[in-house]
Design goal:
- The protein contains 21 helices and no strands.
- The longest helix is centred in the middle third of the chain and has 34 residues.
């Protein structure tokens, strides 16, 4: 290993220490990237990557429009009606509350994409429901966190992780969301939810707090009337994206609507990301139409959400990309490639676990996938493996790492909603998530969980 590579490892350890001690993740990653790249004699790669990612519409358009749509859904109450529709049956079956809440969070995260927005929307309904059933706040927070962040967004063609893989492999996000991700995501969901469900029984028996001593109050039916029209609005962009892509191709969106005509008749590469933005805008219009009394503030809420997305998501992707470029300049990516070439059986475990570890440090699954996927793409092709399938593993590992990161926005939000220490939530979901990842890797190694 070169001097730059050795220094990079030392800087990485120092960066992890600072993040654990509460330093801002963006500051740490950017400073670490500059130090590593300077030691490698190429500090300009960090500056150029910062500027390129900062203005990259592949991330800015889908993420900011999706967050804007999520804010509009909250403003109009559409997300609340979807959650009430899904949660209502659980009010009458206390024994299924834990897996039920996790499943509802997973389903809601598919159209919303944002884990934090999913947690906020779900928490308003789920926290009082589970408390009335006698569950402790720590258990409620763990269920809320796992459901909102286990990986539901990976089944949405608008997920930035899928766009990262598409930009390298040219395989459309609808194909990834429809064929490559479901076997992995549903296996991860089933295993992690099952383990957390079993552990929750033990947690509640050990609990000695006031909530455990109180008799469980019978859940009461929701007094709010559920609007099926509003409940269907969050699904509009998802339906449009699948309808516009093969094999359905039921809707044809002319290029002139999103990117204009490209020279020579070729489709502009920005078509996919802008199509996602258009689908989110159509969803905003539907939300405004479903709640006319609140429509006048929908545009303001949309841009507020877009600003939140840029501040809290794009910024992480920018700094993580800079960090990834610095690591590559230091030669650590080549070292990883050599390791995989010498031990090909390590490809699948490393493709899931390395992004998991990085996401746990930086708190962003999107940033982890974006900065690390290319490290595995080349070795996968040289080994004759499907790089899209490897990308699915990278995305799944990143989602698991984000969910067990004490600095992730969704973890902090779930801690706030349940008045629970984020580290407590992380400790409760880490075991189930790692069990799920291990099962996924094991099944992939023996040839199962192949694309549908």
């Amino acid at each position: 290993m070169t001097f730059a590579g050795l220094l990079a490892l030392i800087v990485v350890v120092a960066a992890v220490t600072l993040v654990v001690r509460g330093w801002d993740v963006r500051l740490v990653l950017l400073a670490a990237a500059l130090i590593i790249a300077s030691a490698a004699g190429a500090p300009w790669v960090v500056v150029s990557e910062f500027l390129a990612t900062f203005s990259n519409e592949k991330f800015v358009v889908p993420i900011c429009t999706a967050m804007g749509f999520a804010y509009v859904l909250k403003h109009t109450g559409c997300e609340r009606h979807l959650i009430l529709l899904l949660v209502n049956p659980l009010r009458y079956v206390r024994g299924l509350l834990v897996p039920g809440v996790i499943a509802v969070g997973f389903v809601v995260n598919i159209p919303l994409v944002s884990q934090t927005s999913t947690a906020v929307c779900l928490g308003a309904v789920v926290v009082p429901l589970m408390r009335a059933a006698g569950y402790s706040m720590a258990t409620v927070g763990a269920c809320l966190l796992l459901g909102a962040s286990v990986g539901g967004e990976l089944l949405n063609p608008g997920a930035p992780e899928l766009l990262t893989v598409e930009s390298v492999t040219k395989v459309r996000t609808t194909v990834q969301a429809g064929s490559y991700l479901p076997p992995l995501v549903f296996t991860q969901l089933a295993v992690s939810a099952g383990v957390l469900w079993a552990m929750s029984v033990w947690w509640e028996r050990r609990s000695e707090g006031p909530a455990a001593a109180e008799p469980a109050a019978p859940p009461s039916p929701s007094p709010e009337r559920i609007s099926l029209l509003k409940a269907s609005v969050p699904l509009v962009p998802l339906v449009l994206l699948f309808a516009a892509a093969p094999p359905f191709s039921a809707v044809e969106v002319p290029a002139v609507w999103v990117v204009g005509d490209a020279p020579g008749g070729a489709r502009n590469p920005a078509y996919g990301s802008r199509l996602i933005g258009l689908a989110m805008l159509v969803g905003v219009l539907c939300a405004a139409a479903a709640a006319p009394g609140r429509s006048r503030d929908c545009v303001k809420e949309f841009f507020a959400g877009a600003g939140y997305g840029f501040t809290n998501i794009i910024s992480l992707i920018v700094t993580a990309n800079c960090f990834g470029k610095a690591i590559k300049a230091a030669g650590l990516a080549d070292t990883l490639g050599v390791l995989i070439a010498d031990a090909p059986h390590l490809m699948l475990p490393l493709a899931a676990l390395v992004p998991l570890a990085f996401a746990a440090i930086c708190g962003s699954g999107m940033a982890s996938t974006q900065s690390l996927y290319e490290f595995f793409h080349g070795p996968a092709e040289r080994l004759g493996l499907d790089p899209v399938a490897i990308g699915a593993l990278v995305s799944l590992g990143s989602a698991a790492g984000r969910t067990m990161s004490p600095v992730a926005a969704v973890v902090l939000m779930c801690g706030t909603l349940t008045n629970t220490n984020p580290f407590t939530l992380v400790k409760r979901v880490a075991g189930p998530l790692l069990a799920g990842i291990v099962v996924v890797i094991a099944l992939r190694l023996i040839g199962l969980l192949n694309p549908i």
